[in-house]
Write a structure and sequence with these properties.
Blueprint: H1 6-15, E1 20-25, E2 30-36, E3 45-46, E4 51-57, E5 59-63, E6 69-73, E7 77-80, E8 87-90, E9 96-102, E10 111-112, H2 113-117
Antiparallel strand pairs: 1-2, 2-9, 3-10, 4-7, 4-9, 5-6, 5-8
């Protein structure tokens, strides 16, 4: 068994200016914290395995490749299937903090829309 105090991890992300802080990882599963300052975002991309994000703090815009968009706020969760393109943007005035989980080890494929089209 492993345990993590999320508030300590969030503080580490903020104090050390880290977007990505790993929580747990095995050969078949991983969990992490993402920390976005206002206006920061990911690229449009997908992964080969299912993935979830839970909003701990802030407000996120989640966009799909076809332009669909949904705003997520604290205590909301989103699920992406394998190869679902998405982009996450902090659209709030405060930091956006997410907990992510994916059914693959750290270091899995990250395929951007630009890579797919080239």
């Amino acid at each position: 068994m492993e345990f993590v105090k999320i508030t300590d991890t969030m503080r580490t992300a903020k104090d050390e200016n880290k977007r990505f802080v790993p929580l747990f990882g095995t050969d078949t599963f991983r969990s992490w914290i993402l920390y976005f300052r206002p206006g920061e975002h990911t690229d449009m991309h997908y992964h080969l395995s299912p993935e979830t994000f839970l909003v701990l703090e802030g407000k996120a815009s989640v966009k799909g490749l076809k332009g669909e968009e949904r705003i997520l706020e604290k205590n909301e969760i989103v699920f992406f299937g394998p190869k679902d393109y998405y982009q996450i943007t902090n659209v709030g005035a405060e930091p956006l903090v997410l907990v992510g989980n994916r059914s693959e080890p750290f270091g899995g494929a990250h395929v951007t829309a630009e890579e797919k089209n080239s």
